[in-house]
Specification:
The chain has about 120 residues and is mainly alpha-helical. The chain has one domain: Substrate Binding Domain Of Dnak, Chain:A, Domain 2 (Up-down Bundle). Helix content is about 85%, strand content about 0%.
Length: about 120
């Protein structure tokens, strides 16, 4: 039984050390950051953009130190932060548009009140 447990532990350790992230993972994280930049992440979600870039840089360092599991985790975190930046940017742009339309509606109401008086409502 001890031999079986030892074999399982050695197999698990070997599996963990051989989980070298696919180069596509880094490319995917880099393209996620680029998409977030294009969506306005630097303006609307600067903290998330900084986290995405820092985690990707840390993942590269992890690869250099052969910490593959950590590097893979950091690549995934970078992508998540990029996606969050994209969604925060979309939400901010939508809020901006709603505010612009609301202001426009208020101006139209004001003009209608000037034209028709208090009868308008």
């Amino acid at each position: 039984m001890k031999i079986f447990i030892t074999a399982v532990i050695l197999l698990a350790l070997t599996a963990c050390t051989s989980l070298r992230p696919n180069p596509d993972a880094f490319a995917s994280a880099e393209s996620a950051i680029a998409a977030a930049e294009a969506a306005g992440g630097d303006e609307f979600a600067p903290v998330e953009m900084r986290f995405a870039r820092e985690k990707l840089a840390s993942a590269h360092l992890g690869m250099d130190k052969q910490k593959y599991v950590v590097a893979l985790y950091l690549v995934e975190q970078s992508e998540i932060n990029s996606e969050l930046a994209i969604e925060k940017s979309r939400a901010a742009k939508s809020r901006r548009r709603v505010n612009e339309l609301s202001k426009s509606n208020d101006e139209l109401k004001s003009k209608l009140r000037e034209t028709f008086g208090d009868e308008f409502e």
